[in-house]
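Aim 2, interim progress. The first record below pairs a target sequence with its structure tokens.
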Amino acid sequence: ELLTLASMAMETWLDTRLGADVTDHSIFAALTQHWETEFHKDLKELNVLPTDVLTRVTDYVPEIVDYVQKIIDNGYAYASNGSVYFDSAAWRRDRGYLAKLKPESVGDLDALAEGEGKFSDVNSKEKKNQVDFALWKSSKPGEPFWESPWGQGRPGWHIECSAMADSICNNQLDIHSGGEDLLFPHHDNEILQAEGYSNSKQWVNYFIHAGHLSIEGCKMSKSLKNFITIKDALKKNTGRQLRIHFLSHSWHGGLDYSESAMSEAVTTEKYFNDFFLLVKYHKSSLGEGISSFTKLTPLELKLYQQLQECQKVVHNALADSFDTPTAMRVLKSVVSDSYTYLSAQKDAPNVRLLIQVAVYITKILSVFGVAGSQDNIGFASAGEGSVSTDEVALPFVKALSEFRDEVRGSARELKAFDILKKCDNLRDNVLPELGVRLEDRELGDPAVFKIDDKETLLREKKQRQDEIVRKEREKVEKAAARDKAAKEKLEKGKVSPLEMFRTAQYSAWDDQGFPTHDAKGVEVPKSQQKKLKKLQAAQEKLHKTYLQHISDLEI
């Protein structure tokens, strides 16, 4: 345990003392491969699609060396003492700028130093200008190195991105993304390198810079002890719930991770899921053939128009810089519209219209990586294939639910309470284990059945049980508090109102035990007498209650 707690301090100390002795590349490779594997596991849990091409810097060192050499050949870089630096003066002379994305930061040496980390030394005599940055850096003892025309070294902080991207995308990117903290110097320097390599005027068409993540309103950092990993977050919430939280915020704005924010995401997930389950329930009674198509009533026409408006707003929102918050808000709104329609049209609702709404919502949530498939309604079940397990199970669940309705009806007539309890047990304990939600309605109405996620149902069941335990505990605590208060009142009522003021605080009393003079013989002021009379009147009531209690015990 001591070694675990002291690991960070010991790692720093050992690296300082012995780091220069490490020359085996496999040590560095093993570490990076481990975290690369963990990273892709996290991506899978978040339902992030796998990449088409995965590039690793260690695989592309020859390409990076050639890339740097061509920038030198084009006159925009120079070698110095085993390192290679981008020649900012030469570039400014030919192009007239040093930063496209954040030109106001040119010359900000602190930002340059922070952006380059260990590669940075703004006052290094190796550089012609302070704003020149490393394309290739000579390695110090204990650092990874590769052979190059300039000696043993390693790629600069920015060059690896440009070289690997160009090797795959042929010197032209349509969209390039990253955090907003990478605007300058990282992405601006990437542009200089790439355009210096190809002599082009525009390497990237569109940059997308995402906002920062905060934890409970504070910047995430180890020093604040509010650091949370994706794995930690997935212990509390599902990948779907995290994605819903992300979708509720603009990609370029800040994102706050907190319990309250995740609670909203869980509520949103449940809101959609309940609607999907309800539509599936109604779908089970849908007839086949064209006879199931009927003329739209005014209520149905209104919902149909609301769906069309929803589709229009969602399309425009996504076309406006991927405005997912607006899209999610409008999707929830059309669910609300559907519930309004159902409440007004309780008997024989237009199931095909409800299916249209559910299918569209599923389609958009599928695009967002929240729903599993556009082919089925709602969220995918674990292991669900091309045929929905819901569709296979629904006829059997429907038959069971209808049979239970008949049994309950007969049991009520016969007042067979044991049978009613067994029906409740089927609903509350047996079916949730099978991933079936059964909801009884008003007397005479058939129960509503839904295929749901087993874990969700069991979690809700536990929450209900915990709530029952909490209420029972609260009931016991309140009863104990009442008993305690009653005992304290009885204990206080033992003192007679005639005796309560006969203390050293006073020196004279009337025949009712009311004090007339204080300990020094001074008459008690009238203002104080009023307060004392109220206290004596209250004590008289307490004493009467006490005497009655004693009398009741004797009886």
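The second target in this work package is listed in the same format:
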Amino acid sequence: MMILGVRLPWVCRSRGYAYLVLMAKQPKSSSSSRMSPLPAAAISTLVMICASALLGLAFLSMLVHDLDRHTGPFIQLKRGTVHPMLARSQDLQDVPSEGDISSDSIWESPSARFFYGCSEPREEFSFSGVGFPSKANGYLMIEASGGLNQQRTGITDAVVAARLLNATLVVPGLDHKSYWKDNSNFSDIFDVDWFIKSLTSDVSVVKELPAAARSKYLKRNHLTSMRVPRKCTPQYYQSKILPILQKKKVLRLTKFDYRLANKLEPELQRLRCRVNYRALQFTPEILNMGNSLVSRMRQMSKRYIALHLRYESDMLAFSGCYYGGGDKEIKELGAIRKRWKTLHVRSPERERRNGKCPLTPKEVGLMLRALGFGNDSYLYVASGEVYGGEESLAPLKALFPNYFTKETLTTKEELQPFLHYSSRMAALDYIVSDESNVFVTNNNGNMARILAGRRRYYGHKRTIRPNTKKLGSLFLARHEMPWDAFAAKVKTFQKGFMGEPNEMKQGRGEFHENPAACICEKGVGAHSPVDPSGSYNDTSYNYFDEDQLGSYETEVLHAEGEAAAEELPLFSD
């Protein structure tokens, strides 16, 4: 017999069995083959032993329950191990299956209809504007770095840089060497002809250098390459980069990600929006497959949630947090963390208190249920290989059984053209997430920021960001309160993190996440952005410090240790 994993003394397992064992030790009667009755003293002793054992185990049960209530699933015991009772995910009995069916506000913001994207330029900003030079200063070549969405930010800023330099932009090259190891070119992911055509009024763009320039600069290896510092101001480009471009006529800027200041004057910010939200369209092949995934989700339910889970081993290792996996997790994530030689040692407890730990799949599920999404909601999960596999995903799937990914929505044959290209696979997730009724992000990486900004631009579609600083401590105390009280606290803590218009503080934050200069309010007047000053909002949601290169994806690139010996030292990071 087992209670709380502890085996009872053998004498308590079976009254009949104990009787037989005791009688086996007594001499047999010669006059009868029957067993003699158990002596009264033996019965009394047996009862006392069993009662004592049960009382002790009851006390142990109370201790374990109290420990669970006060520490939750992240308790660390000796040598980093986790108590098996606390590490399990089967503690969802108190979670209701139904959602909040009394209101549709969890699916969409009632005030979203009053705002719209507005990125059209003023007349004087176009190429035909008064005072704009008619002759370009040279050709600007860009090498965008990182994964799909980091490259997207680089391409967007490359157009603005070309505008600042009055340069002809060569269609940007994409990163083939770093962590993602995707050899896709620009034309494999984006519609290059549309890109060039849609920017005609803003910047001159060509697919490649003219033949004469290729012969002079590329074949003879006379091309000047450099890397500009991060978040340079327009004045820096015009005072430091422009003279070199005018002298060399062809200039290549490498590792071009976040190389332009976040805050720019409104016309340049609107140019960013025109590039990001209009000019950068996926190829027909990617669009068709992405739209098919959306259609299949819609056939099952008229509305669905898209979750960018981002719970892969590299992300967790970079965070420096602890997720309850004991010695095995500490060893595995610690080995991965050694990639980043410049990362400081962090206290997992402090990181969680400061809200810098992504939620586990189980915690994401509990947050969504507390907000009012029932188990009949359809969930599309955009994710790589989840750390812990099915064991990590089991609680989320138990809470939301209508669980789908691009792999479960397609056949192997349909997905085959995209399988070996991480950027094209990410593009499919991007499309399905963008078209969702509710987008939930569990990280502060590039895809989360880019999609949050796009969804604001196109009507403030519901975008949920976990308030990890408040939710982290709440999850640890979940069993100290009834479910209704827990759900009420989640709803309170999530105010300001639900994608409502004007929910963010003014003055800080990434433009790609909150393109305030490109969002207008109905009834206020044309080209009257919500934040006309050009100051942008603080997300209050940053797992990683801004001085750590802005995002995990950027850190991955630097971990690769790519040499830049050909670059001018003046422009090193």
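The first strand starts at residue 2 and ends at 3. This observation will shape the mutagenesis plan for the next reporting period.
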